[in-house]
Amino acid sequence: MDLILLGAPGAGKGTQGSRLAETLGIPKVATGDILRESVREKTPLGLKAKEYMDAGELVPDEVILGLVHDALASPAAENGVIFDGFPRNVKQAEDLGRILEKAGRRVDGVIVLEVPDDAIVERMSGRRTDPDTGLVYHVVHNPPPAEVAGRVIQRADDHEDTVRHRLKVYAEQTAPLISFYEREGAVVSRVDGTREINEVQAEILRVLRP
Ligand code: AMP
After folding, report:
1. 3-27+74-208 has which CATH code?
2. Ligand 1 centroid vs 93 CA: distance in angstroms?
3. Is the N or the C terminus of the chain less surrounded, counting Cβ atoms within 10 Å?
4. pLDDT single digits (tens) 29-84
5. Is 0.85 topped by the overall pTM?
6. Which atom of ligand 1 sits closest to the CA of residue 33?
7. Which atom of ligand 1 is nearest to the CA of 166?
């Protein structure tokens, strides 16, 4: 089963994607996580991507497509994946369609996590990431366990100005994918992402397994 998690930055795609991956037993492909790993390792790709990421801009499509190709070539991905943060624009969605079609697959479902912009900005200011596991926490709503609390970090692109710019990029380039997939006839489910993490998770499972 190939699923796409759509939603603004901070809507909960990372958290819900990890939980869903565990529940369904298929890997999560999070292009943002792969890019941050490359930035940390200072690979040529990471060095190229960093300036776009720090500015809250999208990394060029050809870079992203290469990453997705590699991720889908892994044996773990042969029964489907959960895409988190990809596709981010219509070009990426069209390319994904072609890649999946070659493998006899298609997008089986699109989950849209809906959260208003003001709530996003509040969330992002308290968001912290565990650099070792990539798991995402919030200082108030989802505090890291004691053994992790000492090492969590705030992402450089989670500062307010950059968050507002990322929201603009989302509205202009990514949100149109909702109608793109509706036109394609994919099953698109909108989920209220403002609720408590376990409730959102339960709702996602409900729409996937009615
Ligand atoms: P995320 O962790 O998904 O919020 O992504 C963090 C940043 O990585 C984004 O603001 C972009 O700069 C970059 N990025 C992640 N995924 C993509 C993508 N599919 N296309 C372009 N840029 C991306």
Report:
1. 3.40.50.300
2. 14
3. C
4. 999 999 999 999 999 999 999 999 999 999 999 999 999 999 999 999 999 999 99
5. yes
6. 2
7. 10
